[in-house]
Amino acid sequence: MTQTQGRNQCLSAEIPELSKCSVLMRERCRVEETIYNMQQTGPENLQVISDFDMTLTRFAYKGKRVPTTHNILDNRLLIDENCTKKIKKLLNTYYPIEIDARLSTEEKLPLMVEWWTKVHKLLMEQKIRKDLLAQAVRESPSKLREGYKMFFDHLAEQNVPLLIFSAGIGDVLEEVIRQNHVFHPNVNIISNYMDFDHTGVLQAFKGQLIHTFNKREGALAHAAHLTELKGRQNVLLLGDSLGDLTMADGVSNVQNTLTIGFLNDQVEERKELFLNSFDIVLVKDETLEIPNAILKNIFRTPRCSKRT
Ligand code: C5P
Ligand code: MG
Protein backbone atom coordinates (compact mmCIF):
# COMPACT_ATOMS: atom_id res chain seq x y z
CA MET A 1 0.00 0.00 0.00
CA THR A 2 1.33 3.47 -0.88
CA GLN A 3 1.53 6.21 1.73
CA THR A 4 -1.26 8.15 0.01
CA GLN A 5 -3.56 5.10 -0.19
CA GLY A 6 -2.96 4.42 3.49
CA ARG A 7 -3.82 8.00 4.47
CA ASN A 8 -6.91 8.00 2.30
CA GLN A 9 -8.25 4.77 3.79
CA CYS A 10 -7.74 6.34 7.17
CA LEU A 11 -9.63 9.50 6.17
CA SER A 12 -12.52 7.57 4.63
CA ALA A 13 -13.02 5.85 7.94
CA GLU A 14 -12.77 9.15 9.80
CA ILE A 15 -15.30 11.00 7.61
CA PRO A 16 -17.96 8.41 6.75
CA GLU A 17 -20.30 11.26 5.71
CA LEU A 18 -18.27 11.56 2.49
CA SER A 19 -19.65 8.19 1.38
CA LYS A 20 -23.27 9.41 1.23
CA CYS A 21 -24.86 9.17 -2.22
CA SER A 22 -25.59 12.92 -2.28
CA VAL A 23 -21.82 13.57 -2.15
CA LEU A 24 -20.10 13.56 -5.53
CA MET A 25 -16.39 13.92 -6.19
CA ARG A 26 -14.47 13.89 -9.44
CA GLU A 27 -11.17 13.09 -7.72
CA ARG A 28 -11.79 11.52 -4.36
CA CYS A 29 -8.07 10.98 -3.79
CA ARG A 30 -7.31 14.67 -4.22
CA VAL A 31 -10.06 15.59 -1.78
CA GLU A 32 -8.74 13.20 0.82
CA GLU A 33 -5.17 14.33 0.30
CA THR A 34 -6.25 17.98 0.71
CA ILE A 35 -8.18 17.26 3.91
CA TYR A 36 -5.19 15.32 5.21
CA ASN A 37 -2.87 18.27 4.49
CA MET A 38 -5.29 20.67 6.17
CA GLN A 39 -5.51 18.42 9.21
CA GLN A 40 -1.73 18.26 9.49
CA THR A 41 -1.39 22.06 9.52
CA GLY A 42 -4.37 22.59 11.83
CA PRO A 43 -6.97 25.32 12.44
CA GLU A 44 -4.37 28.07 12.82
CA ASN A 45 -3.62 27.78 9.09
CA LEU A 46 -7.23 27.59 7.93
CA GLN A 47 -9.65 30.19 6.65
CA VAL A 48 -13.18 29.60 5.41
CA ILE A 49 -14.71 31.62 2.59
CA SER A 50 -18.40 31.13 1.99
CA ASP A 51 -21.14 32.45 -0.22
CA PHE A 52 -24.37 33.27 1.65
CA ASP A 53 -27.66 32.91 -0.24
CA MET A 54 -28.44 29.28 -0.99
CA THR A 55 -25.09 28.20 0.49
CA LEU A 56 -25.33 29.11 4.17
CA THR A 57 -29.08 29.55 3.78
CA ARG A 58 -31.36 26.77 2.58
CA PHE A 59 -32.56 26.63 -1.00
CA ALA A 60 -35.99 25.30 -0.04
CA TYR A 61 -37.93 24.36 3.07
CA LYS A 62 -41.08 22.21 3.13
CA GLY A 63 -41.34 22.43 -0.64
CA LYS A 64 -41.10 26.22 -0.81
CA ARG A 65 -38.15 28.36 -1.89
CA VAL A 66 -36.42 30.12 0.99
CA PRO A 67 -35.97 33.87 0.33
CA THR A 68 -32.58 35.29 -0.56
CA THR A 69 -31.42 38.46 1.20
CA HIS A 70 -32.93 40.49 -1.67
CA ASN A 71 -36.26 38.69 -1.36
CA ILE A 72 -36.43 39.13 2.41
CA LEU A 73 -37.12 42.79 1.57
CA ASP A 74 -40.41 41.69 0.00
CA ASN A 75 -42.42 42.83 3.01
CA ARG A 76 -45.10 45.54 3.02
CA LEU A 77 -43.18 47.25 5.79
CA LEU A 78 -40.51 48.07 3.23
CA ILE A 79 -41.84 47.90 -0.31
CA ASP A 80 -45.25 48.27 -1.98
CA GLU A 81 -47.17 45.69 -3.99
CA ASN A 82 -46.25 47.18 -7.33
CA CYS A 83 -42.55 46.96 -6.48
CA THR A 84 -42.99 43.32 -5.37
CA LYS A 85 -44.52 42.52 -8.75
CA LYS A 86 -41.69 44.20 -10.65
CA ILE A 87 -38.98 42.46 -8.58
CA LYS A 88 -40.70 39.06 -9.07
CA LYS A 89 -40.88 39.64 -12.81
CA LEU A 90 -37.16 40.43 -12.88
CA LEU A 91 -36.40 37.30 -10.84
CA ASN A 92 -38.39 35.17 -13.27
CA THR A 93 -36.47 36.67 -16.18
CA TYR A 94 -32.93 36.69 -14.83
CA TYR A 95 -32.66 33.79 -12.35
CA PRO A 96 -33.07 31.18 -15.15
CA ILE A 97 -30.21 32.95 -16.96
CA GLU A 98 -28.04 32.91 -13.81
CA ILE A 99 -28.27 29.12 -13.56
CA ASP A 100 -28.41 28.25 -17.28
CA ALA A 101 -25.74 25.60 -17.93
CA ARG A 102 -25.71 26.40 -21.66
CA LEU A 103 -24.60 30.01 -21.23
CA SER A 104 -21.02 31.06 -20.47
CA THR A 105 -20.08 33.38 -17.63
CA GLU A 106 -19.18 36.04 -20.23
CA GLU A 107 -22.67 35.82 -21.70
CA LYS A 108 -24.31 36.01 -18.27
CA LEU A 109 -22.22 38.85 -16.90
CA PRO A 110 -23.92 41.91 -18.50
CA LEU A 111 -27.34 40.41 -17.80
CA MET A 112 -26.52 39.99 -14.12
CA VAL A 113 -25.40 43.64 -13.92
CA GLU A 114 -28.71 44.55 -15.56
CA TRP A 115 -30.70 42.47 -13.01
CA TRP A 116 -28.95 43.82 -9.91
CA THR A 117 -29.00 47.41 -11.20
CA LYS A 118 -32.74 47.34 -11.96
CA VAL A 119 -33.62 45.79 -8.60
CA HIS A 120 -31.41 48.18 -6.61
CA LYS A 121 -33.01 51.12 -8.44
CA LEU A 122 -36.50 49.84 -7.54
CA LEU A 123 -35.44 49.38 -3.91
CA MET A 124 -34.07 52.93 -3.73
CA GLU A 125 -37.37 54.30 -5.04
CA GLN A 126 -39.14 52.63 -2.09
CA LYS A 127 -37.35 54.75 0.49
CA ILE A 128 -36.66 51.71 2.65
CA ARG A 129 -36.18 52.50 6.34
CA LYS A 130 -33.15 51.11 8.13
CA ASP A 131 -35.04 50.78 11.42
CA LEU A 132 -37.54 48.35 9.86
CA LEU A 133 -35.00 45.89 8.42
CA ALA A 134 -34.71 43.79 11.58
CA GLN A 135 -38.50 43.34 11.75
CA ALA A 136 -38.64 42.32 8.07
CA VAL A 137 -35.96 39.68 8.70
CA ARG A 138 -37.84 38.41 11.78
CA GLU A 139 -41.05 38.10 9.78
CA SER A 140 -39.40 36.37 6.80
CA PRO A 141 -39.18 32.60 6.34
CA SER A 142 -35.40 32.93 5.85
CA LYS A 143 -33.54 29.83 7.06
CA LEU A 144 -29.91 28.97 7.57
CA ARG A 145 -29.00 25.38 6.66
CA GLU A 146 -29.37 22.69 9.26
CA GLY A 147 -26.12 22.40 11.22
CA TYR A 148 -25.44 26.16 10.94
CA LYS A 149 -24.92 26.60 14.66
CA MET A 150 -22.20 23.97 14.83
CA PHE A 151 -20.59 25.45 11.71
CA PHE A 152 -20.41 29.04 12.98
CA ASP A 153 -19.69 28.15 16.62
CA HIS A 154 -16.95 25.67 15.79
CA LEU A 155 -15.12 28.16 13.57
CA ALA A 156 -15.38 30.84 16.27
CA GLU A 157 -14.13 28.47 18.99
CA GLN A 158 -11.12 27.54 16.85
CA ASN A 159 -10.45 31.20 15.91
CA VAL A 160 -10.79 30.36 12.23
CA PRO A 161 -11.80 33.43 10.19
CA LEU A 162 -15.02 33.07 8.22
CA LEU A 163 -15.37 35.42 5.28
CA ILE A 164 -18.93 35.56 3.99
CA PHE A 165 -18.85 36.84 0.44
CA SER A 166 -22.30 37.62 -0.86
CA ALA A 167 -23.84 39.27 -3.88
CA GLY A 168 -26.91 39.68 -1.69
CA ILE A 169 -27.57 42.63 0.63
CA GLY A 170 -25.09 42.94 3.49
CA ASP A 171 -27.40 44.75 5.93
CA VAL A 172 -29.99 41.98 5.61
CA LEU A 173 -27.37 39.22 5.77
CA GLU A 174 -25.96 40.67 9.01
CA GLU A 175 -29.44 40.76 10.51
CA VAL A 176 -30.08 37.12 9.56
CA ILE A 177 -26.93 35.87 11.28
CA ARG A 178 -27.43 38.23 14.24
CA GLN A 179 -30.96 36.96 14.81
CA ASN A 180 -29.63 33.39 14.64
CA HIS A 181 -27.00 34.29 17.28
CA VAL A 182 -24.01 33.35 15.12
CA PHE A 183 -22.55 36.76 14.21
CA HIS A 184 -19.31 35.94 16.02
CA PRO A 185 -16.16 38.16 16.03
CA ASN A 186 -14.38 35.85 13.52
CA VAL A 187 -16.96 36.71 10.81
CA ASN A 188 -16.11 39.21 8.06
CA ILE A 189 -18.58 40.13 5.34
CA ILE A 190 -18.13 41.40 1.81
CA SER A 191 -21.46 42.27 0.23
CA ASN A 192 -23.67 45.02 -1.20
CA TYR A 193 -24.36 47.39 1.67
CA MET A 194 -27.16 49.93 1.73
CA ASP A 195 -26.34 53.60 2.13
CA PHE A 196 -28.91 55.40 4.30
CA ASP A 197 -29.33 59.17 4.54
CA HIS A 198 -29.27 61.03 7.86
CA THR A 199 -32.95 60.19 8.45
CA GLY A 200 -32.29 56.44 7.99
CA VAL A 201 -33.83 56.15 4.52
CA LEU A 202 -32.15 54.13 1.73
CA GLN A 203 -30.59 56.49 -0.79
CA ALA A 204 -27.98 54.32 -2.59
CA PHE A 205 -25.83 51.20 -2.41
CA LYS A 206 -22.25 51.56 -1.23
CA GLY A 207 -19.18 50.80 -3.33
CA GLN A 208 -18.77 48.59 -6.37
CA LEU A 209 -21.77 46.38 -7.16
CA ILE A 210 -21.20 42.69 -6.40
CA HIS A 211 -23.17 40.18 -8.47
CA THR A 212 -22.79 36.42 -8.86
CA PHE A 213 -20.11 36.59 -11.54
CA ASN A 214 -17.80 39.41 -10.47
CA LYS A 215 -16.72 38.09 -7.09
CA ARG A 216 -13.12 37.89 -8.34
CA GLU A 217 -12.92 41.70 -8.62
CA GLY A 218 -14.47 42.05 -5.17
CA ALA A 219 -12.05 39.52 -3.73
CA LEU A 220 -9.03 41.32 -5.14
CA ALA A 221 -10.30 44.73 -4.06
CA HIS A 222 -10.91 43.66 -0.47
CA ALA A 223 -7.90 41.36 -0.01
CA ALA A 224 -5.59 44.10 1.22
CA HIS A 225 -7.94 45.04 4.09
CA LEU A 226 -8.37 41.53 5.41
CA THR A 227 -4.96 41.29 7.03
CA GLU A 228 -6.06 38.70 9.59
CA LEU A 229 -6.41 36.24 6.71
CA LYS A 230 -2.78 36.61 5.65
CA GLY A 231 -0.60 33.62 6.46
CA ARG A 232 -3.56 31.22 6.53
CA GLN A 233 -2.60 29.06 3.61
CA ASN A 234 -5.52 26.61 3.65
CA VAL A 235 -8.89 27.64 2.25
CA LEU A 236 -12.20 25.86 2.59
CA LEU A 237 -14.59 27.47 0.09
CA LEU A 238 -18.36 26.96 -0.02
CA GLY A 239 -20.67 28.12 -2.80
CA ASP A 240 -23.68 27.33 -4.93
CA SER A 241 -22.63 29.00 -8.16
CA LEU A 242 -19.60 28.66 -10.42
CA GLY A 243 -19.08 32.39 -9.80
CA ASP A 244 -18.39 31.59 -6.15
CA LEU A 245 -15.20 29.75 -7.10
CA THR A 246 -13.39 33.07 -7.57
CA MET A 247 -14.06 34.22 -3.99
CA ALA A 248 -10.59 33.07 -2.89
CA ASP A 249 -8.76 34.92 -5.67
CA GLY A 250 -7.58 37.61 -3.26
CA VAL A 251 -5.81 35.12 -0.98
CA SER A 252 -2.06 34.94 -1.48
CA ASN A 253 0.22 31.94 -0.90
CA VAL A 254 -2.56 29.38 -0.86
CA GLN A 255 -1.25 25.87 -0.19
CA ASN A 256 -4.46 23.83 -0.07
CA THR A 257 -7.92 24.73 -1.32
CA LEU A 258 -10.98 22.56 -0.93
CA THR A 259 -14.11 23.72 -2.72
CA ILE A 260 -17.61 22.51 -1.89
CA GLY A 261 -20.51 23.27 -4.23
CA PHE A 262 -24.16 23.00 -3.26
CA LEU A 263 -26.05 21.84 -6.34
CA ASN A 264 -29.55 23.02 -5.45
CA ASP A 265 -31.34 23.52 -8.74
CA GLN A 266 -31.17 22.29 -12.36
CA VAL A 267 -29.35 19.28 -10.98
CA GLU A 268 -29.05 17.07 -14.06
CA GLU A 269 -28.26 19.99 -16.37
CA ARG A 270 -25.47 21.31 -14.13
CA LYS A 271 -24.07 18.15 -12.54
CA GLU A 272 -21.17 17.75 -14.92
CA LEU A 273 -20.25 21.43 -14.82
CA PHE A 274 -20.26 21.38 -11.03
CA LEU A 275 -18.25 18.15 -10.88
CA ASN A 276 -15.63 19.65 -13.16
CA SER A 277 -15.45 22.81 -11.07
CA PHE A 278 -15.89 21.99 -7.36
CA ASP A 279 -13.89 19.34 -5.47
CA ILE A 280 -17.01 18.14 -3.67
CA VAL A 281 -20.55 18.51 -5.03
CA LEU A 282 -23.50 18.17 -2.65
CA VAL A 283 -26.68 17.28 -4.49
CA LYS A 284 -29.87 18.67 -2.99
CA ASP A 285 -28.35 18.60 0.47
CA GLU A 286 -30.05 21.21 2.67
CA THR A 287 -27.60 20.75 5.53
CA LEU A 288 -24.06 21.74 6.51
CA GLU A 289 -23.33 18.17 7.55
CA ILE A 290 -20.45 17.65 5.12
CA PRO A 291 -18.61 20.95 5.81
CA ASN A 292 -19.08 20.27 9.54
CA ALA A 293 -17.68 16.74 9.26
CA ILE A 294 -14.65 18.00 7.32
CA LEU A 295 -14.04 20.80 9.83
CA LYS A 296 -14.32 18.37 12.73
CA ASN A 297 -11.67 16.26 11.10
CA ILE A 298 -9.36 19.19 10.45
CA PHE A 299 -9.77 20.43 14.02
CA ARG A 300 -8.73 17.26 15.73
CA THR A 301 -5.12 16.61 16.57
CA PRO A 302 -3.32 14.94 13.66
CA ARG A 303 -3.19 11.26 14.42
CA CYS A 304 -3.12 9.47 11.08
CA SER A 305 0.43 10.18 10.04
CA LYS A 306 2.00 7.19 11.86
CA ARG A 307 -0.50 4.69 10.47
CA THR A 308 0.69 4.96 6.83
O1 C5P B 1 -25.07 35.34 -1.36
P1 C5P B 1 -25.12 35.19 -2.86
O2 C5P B 1 -23.89 35.70 -3.53
O3 C5P B 1 -25.51 33.82 -3.27
O4 C5P B 1 -26.35 36.14 -3.29
C1 C5P B 1 -26.76 36.26 -4.60
C2 C5P B 1 -28.00 35.48 -4.94
O5 C5P B 1 -29.15 36.31 -4.78
C3 C5P B 1 -27.99 35.06 -6.39
O6 C5P B 1 -27.69 33.70 -6.53
C4 C5P B 1 -29.36 35.42 -6.95
O7 C5P B 1 -30.08 34.29 -7.42
C5 C5P B 1 -30.09 36.04 -5.80
N1 C5P B 1 -30.72 37.32 -6.19
C6 C5P B 1 -32.05 37.51 -5.88
N2 C5P B 1 -32.66 38.70 -6.23
C7 C5P B 1 -31.97 39.66 -6.85
C8 C5P B 1 -30.60 39.48 -7.16
C9 C5P B 1 -30.01 38.27 -6.80
O8 C5P B 1 -32.69 36.63 -5.29
N3 C5P B 1 -32.57 40.76 -7.18
MG1 MG C 1 -25.45 31.83 -3.49
From TrEMBL:
It is an enzyme of class 3 (hydrolase). It is found in: Cytoplasm. Its EC number is 3.1.3.5. GO terms for molecular function: 5'-nucleotidase activity; magnesium ion binding; nucleotide binding. GO terms for cellular component: cytoplasm. It catalyses: CMP + H2O = cytidine + phosphate; N(7)-methyl-GMP + H2O = N(7)-methylguanosine + phosphate; a ribonucleoside 5'-phosphate + H2O = a ribonucleoside + phosphate. Keywords: Cytoplasm, Hydrolase, Magnesium, Metal-binding, Nucleotide metabolism, Nucleotide-binding. InterPro entries: HAD-like_sf, HAD_sf, Pyrimidine_nucleotidase_eu. GO terms for biological process: nucleotide metabolic process. It holds the Pfam family UMPH-1. Gene3D superfamilies: HAD superfamily/HAD-like, Pyrimidine 5'-nucleotidase (UMPH-1), N-terminal domain. The keyword Nucleotidyltransferase does not apply. Its main location: cytoplasm. Belongs to the pyrimidine 5'-nucleotidase family. Specifically hydrolyzes 7-methylguanosine monophosphate (m(7)GMP) to 7-methylguanosine and inorganic phosphate. The specific activity for m(7)GMP may protect cells against undesired salvage of m(7)GMP and its incorporation into nucleic acids. Also has weak activity for CMP. UMP and purine nucleotides are poor substrates. Monomer. This is 5'-nucleotidase.
